[in-house]
Amino acid sequence: MELPLKLQNVVDQFTKLPGVGGKTALRQSMMLTKWNARELQFFASSLNELSTLKQCAECLILCDHEFCTLCTNVKRQEKKLLCVVENMTDCLAIENSGQFHGLYHVLGGVLNPLLGIGPDELNIQKLVNRVAEKFTEVILAINPSVEGDATCSYIKELLPTSIDVRRIGFGVPIGGHLEYLDAMTISKAFENSRSM
Ligand SMILES: [Zn+2]
Q1: Ligand 1 centroid distance, CA of 72 (Å)
Q2: What strands lie across the sheet with 103-106, from one edge to the other?
Q3: Which contacts qualify for 143-147: CB closer than 8 Å, 24 or more apart?
Q4: pTM score, two decimals?
């Protein structure tokens, strides 16, 4: 049986999301048919607003204004400590652990020549500039993998030797990913950071 077009369109949108198959998409869409017009409007306008989401001009975290709330926090600025992460979800996981009180820099991934991801595809030059201007210590919270290790070495080479560059210590297997670790494990990883 064919779905009404208006419903099918919504199902099609949900199936674009990671981890959402046809059945889940249909169940979620059916749930939406029970919402009233006002609720649906707010849902739709919330999605629409995503198109105006900004990236912080400093750390590249997603935010509502030109700078994120972390970069404008004077207490965090004073620490002169920068944590480099692959993406914003890693940053959120670290924030949830409550272990880190400096600022962040989102790389946007790791070096991966096979996928054509070189230094120009990542926010590496911006990182070097920021460190030169404002930081004395850098902690690399890059996930452990061959590409992650190569990215850390590459960054270390680019930064002045006067900068203390550390990498968080993973008590987790290679392939472990920050965003899936619990707060305690992340805290331990920061405690076990070591100089590169
Ligand atoms: Zn920021």
Answers
A1: 7
A2: 103-106, 81-85, 137-141, 164-167, 194-195
A3: 143/86, 143/90, 143/110, 143/176, 143/177, 143/178, 144/170, 144/172, 144/174, 144/175, 144/176, 145/110, 145/174, 145/175, 147/110, 147/111, 147/112
A4: 0.83
Helices and strands (H, E) in the chain, number of each type: 8, 7
> 66 CA to middle of ligand 1, Å?
9
Dist. CA 64 → ligand 1 center (Å): 11
Centroid of ligand 1 to alpha carbon of 62 (angstroms)? 8
**Residue 65 structure tokens:** 């204004």
- Residues lining ion ligand 1 (Cβ < 5 A) are 56, 58-59, 61, 68, 71
Count CB atoms within 10 A of the CB of residue 71: 18
Residue 100 confidence class, pLDDT cut points 50, 70, 90: very high
Is 70 exceeded by the pLDDT of residue 155?
yes
Report pLDDT for 185: 82
pLDDT of residue 122: 95
Give the SS3 label for residue 165. strand
Please, which pLDDT band fits residue 77 given cuts at 50, 70 and 90?
very high
Ligand 1 centre to CA of 111 (Å) is 22
